Amino acid sequence: MIFLVTIKSKYFLIVLLLFVSTLSFSQVRGQEFQSWNDAILKYQFNDKLAQVGDLGARYYFDMHWSVFYIRPALQWKPTKDITLIGGVAAFYSTNPDFENILDLRVFQAVELVWPRVRGFSIHHRVMVEERWFLTDSYATEFNVRGRYRVGLATPHYKLFGEKRSTYNQLLIEFLDELDKGTILPFSKYQRYTFVIGRDFSKRVGLELHYQVHAIEVDQGIDIQQHIFRIRLKLNLNAS
Asked: Residue 101: which domain range?
């Protein structure tokens, strides 16, 4: 109650209610819980070009998988609202009961911010990932995955201080393999994310995420993954 009363803006409640309203799943057969912790790094070369990336660790409590990853990329902004991104990634998954997996990726993405209305903005991202799965016992597997994410971002507002440094985001992402010929792509895997973030300075920020991943195995939503995520944001040469 103290937390909600302290918020002078309605942005938090609006985005939270929108997030809850999207979670209308049925026929859930299994639920899993995960913890993700990572850092987002950025080094700005000039107004348009930057080196970006993230790295971190993930733990799957039910299946006992540990995942460590690094994902560097180059980012180019030809305009204020359009961003082009290209990079590589390595995800290493370990489990005491199963064979370890190395997931290597090359990815390309386009981000668009549109529209902007009174400080609110809608963010779109289209991404394609080429992925190679390597193990000691099996032949290398390859697939191409498509991702589309749309999100609502609030203006910065005051919370526990005088500066407008807090914000919220509501993100929905659809993922699917593009090379398997499904009739309805992006229908079997969705991610729903609620974010509360705070920028402590131009160089340092922190985000807390609650994510629900909905995975359809047969008909209907069969598995829900609940993820609690902490993201540290570092803008290395911001002034």
From this structure: 2-235
